[in-house]
Amino acid sequence: MSGRTFIQNPGPTNIPDRILRAMARPAIDFGTEEFAALLESCLINVNRHMANSGPLIGYTSTGHGAWEATVTNLFDVGAPVLVCDSGHFSHRWGEMCEAHGLDVQWFETGWRQGVDPNALQEALSTDAGKRIEGVLLAHTETSTGVTTDLEAVRSVLDDLDHPALLVVDSIASFGCTPLRVDELKVDVCLAVSQKGLMMPVGLAFTGISERAVSAAYQNSRHRFYWDWRRRLEVEGYRMFCGTPPIHHLFGLEEALTMIDEEGGIDAVTDRHQLLADAVRAAVQAWSSAGAIQFNAVNAHERSNSVTCVRLTEQHDADKVLQVAQERFNITMGSGIGPLAGSAFRIGHLGDLNTPMVMGALGAVEASLRACGIPLGSGGLEAAASLLSESSS
Ligand SMILES: *Cc1c(COP(=O)(O)O)cnc(C)c1O
Fold it and tell me: pLDDT digit string (tens) for 166-176?
């Protein structure tokens, strides 16, 4: 087919040509001043965008690696933790905690909403002696399209004067939804390269607080590759516990330059909010015919990164995805877990602008219509109208 295929997956996302070009160059010696400066500037700037004054640790890995680094550094075998199970990814992270021998207390949200502060307050109030060492949650749960209000979660911990570490998977929210680590006293903030950062998969980060650093030093669990102590103490190449990902850092430096050129991380999250609002306006209009609905039941929790659209029973979401891909040049995320076959997910994070989002919405509408799914009218009009009223 002619033209570009649109990748509206919630990761990996579009990689701007500028980033691809920045990576298309010869390797450099990682013992040089040039490499030291590149690494330092990348770490400083990612941390600046997290608003984190603690250390930032980089990994040549997926998000799963950052999960494992976090779990094995913070918690010893048998440590009680509360895992907020709000969808596929947070559930899987909890399973990883169990695999590492943690004593997991599951906090269920039902996969259509985020962490309810009152319910969390109740769950933590039963923790006599305040033994729970960590509260783990996904800021944006990519499988459900739900973003949890982190300020509310922080307030619950503060109100109870609960010392648990606040551990946040911001893999799908970093660069899309504001998250200020110091201000919210987030102890670990996890991010990856292939979502909001517009990069190929292969880099992950944890911004960590001083409390998290001391927890790691007090934890006698055996570990090596992921060990923060090893990564914090030895200069240069050892931070990555092996040869550093030189080309990914070339790309990352370019991505960080692009973020600053746009006006900084706040401008980037504002754009995500606007484009997400446009997607939501279209889905809202389509839903009036009763065949589709938002998975996220609370409007204020609908994420800036991905919209999960549910179809009523008689319709097949996988068929929509197939038609979208084969006839209309667009790929999207499929329904995961209990949503398999009955939902699809429109990713709207990373390198995107208004015509790309309008194009994607047009292709989604055409796909839904081609599958005979009844749609309310005016979806594209609602999106265009919302965009026309925005000031930026
Ligand atoms: C994508 C994603 C992950 C997993 O990242 P990988 O790089 O695929 O391991 C974890 N959590 C969330 C919220 C995600 O969106």
Answer: 999 999 999 99
Banded model confidence at residue 392, pLDDT cuts 50, 70, 90: low
Q: Is 56 in the pocket of ligand 1 (CB under 6 A)?
A: no
pTM of this structure: 0.97
Q: Indicate the fold that domain 17-260 takes in CATH.
A: Aspartate Aminotransferase; domain 2 (3.40.640)
Question: Residue 192: CB within 6 Å of ligand 1?
Answer: yes
Ligand 1: residue whose CA is nearest its atom 6: 63
> What is the 147 CA–ligand 1 centroid distance (Å)?
14
Does 172 sit in the ligand 1 pocket, CB within 6 Å?
yes
How does pLDDT run across 328-362, given as a tens digit for each residue? 999 999 999 999 999 999 999 999 999 999 999 99
Place of tokens 């950062």: 197
The predicted model gives 246-259 an average pLDDT of 98
> Under CATH, what is the fold of the domain 6-12+264-390?
Aspartate Aminotransferase, domain 1 (3.90.1150)
Pairing relationship of beta strands 188-192 and 306-311 according to DSSP bridges: unpaired
- Sequence spans of domains, the chain: 6-12+264-390, 17-260
CB of residue 89 inside a 6 A radius of ligand 1: yes
Sheet holding 103-108, edge to edge: 56-60, 203-208, 188-192, 165-169, 134-138, 80-85, 103-108
Ligand 1 contact, 96 CB (< 6 A): no
